[in-house]
Amino acid sequence: MDRIRIQGGARLNGAIPISGAKNAALPLMIASLLTSQTLTLENVPRLADVRLLLRILGNHGVDHMIAGKRPGELPTSGQTLKLEARNIVDTLAPYELVSRMRASFWVLAPLLARMGQAKVSLPGGCAIGTRPVDLLLQALESLGAKIDIEAGYVIASAPKGLVGGQIVFPKVTVGGTHVALMAASLARGSTVIHNAAREPEIVDLADCLTKMGARIQGAGGSTIEIEGVASLGGATHTVLPDRIETGTYAMAVAMTGGDVFLQGARPELLQSALDVLSRTGAQISSDAMGIRVRRNGGEIQPVDVMTDPFPGFPTDLQAQFMALMTRADGVTRITETIFENRFMHVQELARFGAKIHLEHDTAVVTGVRSLMGAPVMATDLRASVSLVIAALAAQGETIVHRVYHLDRGFEQLEQKLRDCGAEVERISGGD
Ligand code: EPZ
User: Fold this and answer.
1) CA 175 to ligand 1 center in whole angstroms
2) What is the mean pLDDT, run by run of 10 residues, along the chain of 431 residues?
3) What are the strands of the beta sheet with 153-157, ordered from one edge?
4) Which residues are catalytic?
5) All domains of the chain, ordered by start, with CATH?
């Protein structure tokens, strides 16, 4: 397994191209199961999760083609994927594949909507919390699906097709909303999703489905109305920029100091996080080409944060923000409201000399003058990158183990940081 070595202390200066959003690309790819025609997705990030999902979709009969690079294209330009599910050859998604990536469970919705049946392994536990799928299943039941759970598999059927209905989510769920959107697009009649997730990735999926012929109103708000259609067609869609990658690099600059332009980033996708960063003392400005983040001297100010569904502060930036606050001039309270166990980075940040203690769902961070490099390891994607942020500002060398977590969600991380002056290198092999 690869490791990353970081020599801390360099300020970040330069430009970082922002990739297409992982959490938009995955549901968009899954939406290819809804049609026999070609779905072309542009700006798809080159990530381990994307490669794994291609394998999973391939099992169901989705053919894919990855367009070659055009002359002059940068290595960081996203890839173009052509996905074609002319014939669904299998409606079974096995444990071996679904257990490796939770989002792949969402194939349940398009398989059921198009084929009237699907058998998908339960995704299982995950390092950031229990993460059940009850709300996703209830959404499908609201559209007339019969759901049974047998030997770890969800067996869903709707032999006469799904029927539009009222879907009321008792709590906001991104995956539940993706599933509801895909299923309702091919259901007979109208569906209303109440308390829908408002994340930009939901809007991106709704936009793509609309290009494919779906009739969707209100995506981006809490109530979404869908008028089902008999079939969907092909489309071409560009994946929106990754707001979590954007926020991660913005926090890295706030941590190390310097001046970095985040090319292609869109401030409206992460305004709450940018507002918090400004209050810590970073200077943020933006134009049509991207977002500029600067911090030149001065202490990092502590800012209390509570995670919330969009447009609130994203849970996927909580770990990175905690890394920043380890060097703040005072005490910060960071409250996690989305996942009950998303503090696995706390003990790893402590290896750098960070002072953090947990009070139920709140991490209390007392800023320290300096961090010291250390060997560290993380258990999930965002936690891993929080360790990279700490390492960039720490004195001495850090080795981050289990880099495969980073490869799941950050495209060309070392290259992007190196291009801005960081001392980062990948060491192949080891544990
Ligand atoms: C998506 O996960 C993202 N994943 C997560 O990003 C992100 O942290 C999360 O949304 C919240 O923003 C992808 O988009 C691929 P949820 P998802 O359903 O859809 C509870 C990353 O690092 N819940 O919105 O699985 C659940 O336990 C990942 O990129 C139920 O109780 O999250 C949680 O407490 C990690 N029952 C809350 O709802 C259900 O049936 C929100 O989860 C479903 C969810």
Assistant:
1) 6
2) 94 98 98 98 95 96 87 75 97 92 96 98 67 93 96 95 98 98 98 98 98 98 98 98 98 98 98 98 97 94 98 98 98 96 93 97 97 92 96 97 90 96 90 57
3) 92-93, 117-121, 153-157, 146-150
4) 126
5) 3-18+241-427 (3.65.10.10), 22-238 (3.65.10.10)
